[in-house]
Amino acid sequence: MVHLTVDLIAKSRKHFKKKRGLSFPEYLKTLTHLHFSNKNIEDIGDLSMCTNLTVLYLYDNNITYIGNLSFASNLMHLYMQNNSITHIDNLHNLQNLSKLYLGGNRIAVVEGLEQLHQLKELHVENQRLTPGEKLLFDPRTLDSLAESLCVLNINNNNIDDIRDLAVLKELQHFSAADNKLCSIEELEDVFSHWPQLFLMDLSGNPVCKKPKYRDRLITVCTSLEALDGREINDLTREFLINWKASREAKKKKNNKHDVWITAASFTYGMFLQHILK
């Protein structure tokens, strides 16, 4: 079993070269970036001497539990994708965390992020879930991220409903490819709450096969610059927005005409009843 500890850092040739001229405890205090990806690490030990750590790379390991990071109040980026983590735990002290990478784990519920008010990017794609299971979101976590989260990646997680995500009004980049989204009306409603969205990927969802799918979403997301990897030019956007406005105006006019016809028919019917008495 491999533990990530200061002893493992001391044995690292990369770090050994850098610590010349400093005592090892002094060197640990200067560390800002720690690279231990793909090292068969199974858990995180005591790294509390690394008080200035800002970036931690632990992807492609065998970690099952997030622990012993409460010391890392300066941590800004945490890379823990492709491990075997089942729960998002023990991150409440990471007040400066802005990017969190947890893709390729075994997480069933996005939770435990209520204290991370600086979080701007959350990557939870490709969770290894049991058959029939889908990734869920704790409403408390979503509410706490509403004012900060700009990038969300939830690709390939069997998701069929994103209405709970509407609260994330600061989103600029949303990726939900290869899920099970099928209601274009639901998407239109959610995206109407995201005025700053400029990049979106929904490729591989059933909704992509719906008539006018691309046109309808472009008219709702007026800031969108690319959809499913295809750029949206200003001319196309302007044409579609004008087309939608014209169609809605015509529909409104027809509704008023129908109301007038109905009222006139009613009045004429009452008149006939009066003269026939």
TrEMBL record:
Pfam family, one: LRR_8
rRNA-binding is among the record's keywords: no
Top-level taxon of the source organism: Eukaryota
UniProt keywords, alphabetically: Leucine-rich repeat, Repeat
InterPro entries, per database record: Leu-rich_rpt, LRR_dom_sf, SDS22/Internalin_LRR
Keyword Nucleus: no
SUPFAM superfamilies listed in its UniProt record: L domain-like
Protein known as: Protein phosphatase 1 regulatory subunit 42
